Amino acid sequence: MNSWLQKQMNERPDHPAFYWQDEEWSFLEVGQEVQKWLTAFSSKIPQTEKRVALFSRNSKEMYFSILALWELGKEIVFLNTHLSAQELRYQLSDAEVMTVITATEYLTAITELHQVRCIEMSCSVVTERQKTADESSYQLETPASIMYTSGTTGNPKGVVQRFSNHLASALGTQENMKITATDCWLCPVPLFHISGLSIVIRQLVLGCSVRLYSKFDAERITTDLVEGRGTVISVVAVMLQELLEKYPESGYSETFKAMLLGGGPITPTALEKCEQFGIPVIQSYGMTETCSQVVALGFEDAVAKIGSSGKPLKGIEIKIVDDSEQFVPANKVGEILLKGKNIVQNYLNGDQWQAIKWTSDGWFKTGDMGYLDDDGYLYLVSRLSELIISGGENIYPTEIEHVLQEVPKVKEVAVVGEPDEKWGAVPVAYIVGESTVTAEEIYNFAQKYLAKFKLPKRIYFCHTLPRTASGKLAKHRLTTKEREAFLSK
Ligand code: ATP
Ligand code: MG
């Protein structure tokens, strides 16, 4: 082994590395266990297969599989366990993998695809095999992981994350959150998503410990935070909400440092509660292509800069541009472009995306719209693809959604543009609500807060809204014939 793991084994062999349920593993013990998994995998996966897929939810086995596959020099395609069979087929064939390493509970599902060889996730050895030359040295520029984007705006794209991207990401977080080897990062978020995998990378690069959970259990995590079993935790908004509900009067342990919130903004009520309880929440902005957070808002700025995602991390440049890729001044909305070593250079099989997503001088075009204020804080406004241009006016669906969300009896909202002869496009709303809610009630409420041109021209009631495997609203599916499937009868 000649890797980040090896470095940690040499430098801090007895330091706690990994916690799973009631087990504690030092770096040395992790390394020894990885050796077993590595031997098992090397006897089962043909040497010629450089890339394999992993299909599991968080588990001890998944953790050791990741480390062992990297030691073996494999690129890992991370599959979201919530994907439908059709989505799985697409990602497996796009990534051209022949072998999927699967948690036992998913063996049948993967076998039924009849598309790949299935290896059950275990460290049992078939036959011993000699180590080969390409094993066990991380070449920084080789791909470590292929992770598909959430597919919020269309088909998911396979993001080629190199070790160098992951390294830059870990160092940016170290600087921003002052992470040291004494930290213990709680991981209730999935390892098949960058929010989870980036925690393992930080462990390998910075020497901190990881406490992994198979699923989010607010009660268990609250106990762990109260009893000082974690200094930092990554969460998404719904998890934060549940933790706030369970927050004990006596508070968390004094050793607790920060809650890193990703994936979406904090609600004003949640922020108020965090203030009241003194929970330091760090809000962050990032995407699969940036290998975790690239912009973050510290707790000290949360109230003064409410609604902002924060400032770029060290090593990240940010600029806001118009349609012709020209700079726009502070406080003006445009597309967010990013540059930095975190950011990947390409998609898998993504030639057609290269010129669309990367400028000739190396900026990544996020497809997100936002602005920088006078102090350089970033505010997200919309996705470029969701912008509605109606009679020359820019309409941001999220602004309308925030208002409609407040209507009593409304549960979920998605606003999209619909083609219109006169205006080019008009906003329309898809709503999941209680059975008694009427369009009239919604209009009466909305017109108090929205200019006339922003009022949805039509309201469609739905039994459910389309979502991606990561639970995000997939609004593009409401702009095709597919929308019929979601409408209430
Ligand atoms: P696809 O690229 O396939 O359409 P996706 O962009 O949803 O899917 P991800 O990489 O999982 O795939 O998500 C990144 C996106 O999530 C960002 O580009 C941004 O639109 C959104 N996002 C990330 N952080 C925040 C945040 N703090 N607030 C609001 N939106 C956020
Ligand atoms: Mg995206």
TrEMBL record:
<comment type="pathway">
    <text>Quinol/quinone metabolism; menaquinone biosynthesis.</text>
</comment>
<dbReference type="GO" id="GO:0031956">
    <property type="term" value="F:medium-chain fatty acid-CoA ligase activity"/>
</dbReference>
<dbReference type="InterPro" id="IPR025110">
    <property type="entry name" value="AMP-bd_C"/>
</dbReference>
<dbReference type="InterPro" id="IPR020845">
    <property type="entry name" value="AMP-binding_CS"/>
</dbReference>
<dbReference type="Pfam" id="PF00501">
    <property type="entry name" value="AMP-binding"/>
</dbReference>
<dbReference type="GO" id="GO:0005524">
    <property type="term" value="F:ATP binding"/>
</dbReference>
<keyword id="KW-0547">Nucleotide-binding</keyword>
<feature type="domain" description="AMP-binding enzyme C-terminal">
    <location>
        <begin position="399"/>
        <end position="472"/>
    </location>
</feature>
<feature type="domain" description="AMP-dependent synthetase/ligase">
    <location>
        <begin position="5"/>
        <end position="348"/>
    </location>
</feature>
<protein>
    <recommendedName>
        <fullName>2-succinylbenzoate--CoA ligase</fullName>
        <ecNumber>6.2.1.26</ecNumber>
    </recommendedName>
</protein>
<dbReference type="GO" id="GO:0009234">
    <property type="term" value="P:menaquinone biosynthetic process"/>
</dbReference>
<dbReference type="GO" id="GO:0008756">
    <property type="term" value="F:o-succinylbenzoate-CoA ligase activity"/>
</dbReference>
<comment type="pathway">
    <text>Quinol/quinone metabolism; 1,4-dihydroxy-2-naphthoate biosynthesis; 1,4-dihydroxy-2-naphthoate from chorismate: step 5/7.</text>
</comment>
<dbReference type="GO" id="GO:0006631">
    <property type="term" value="P:fatty acid metabolic process"/>
</dbReference>
<keyword id="KW-0436">Ligase</keyword>
<dbReference type="Pfam" id="PF13193">
    <property type="entry name" value="AMP-binding_C"/>
</dbReference>
<comment type="function">
    <text>Converts 2-succinylbenzoate (OSB) to 2-succinylbenzoyl-CoA (OSB-CoA).</text>
</comment>
<dbReference type="InterPro" id="IPR000873">
    <property type="entry name" value="AMP-dep_synth/lig_dom"/>
</dbReference>
<comment type="similarity">
    <text>Belongs to the ATP-dependent AMP-binding enzyme family. MenE subfamily.</text>
</comment>
<dbReference type="InterPro" id="IPR042099">
    <property type="entry name" value="ANL_N_sf"/>
</dbReference>
<keyword id="KW-0474">Menaquinone biosynthesis</keyword>
<dbReference type="InterPro" id="IPR010192">
    <property type="entry name" value="MenE"/>
</dbReference>
<keyword id="KW-0067">ATP-binding</keyword>
<dbReference type="InterPro" id="IPR045851">
    <property type="entry name" value="AMP-bd_C_sf"/>
</dbReference>
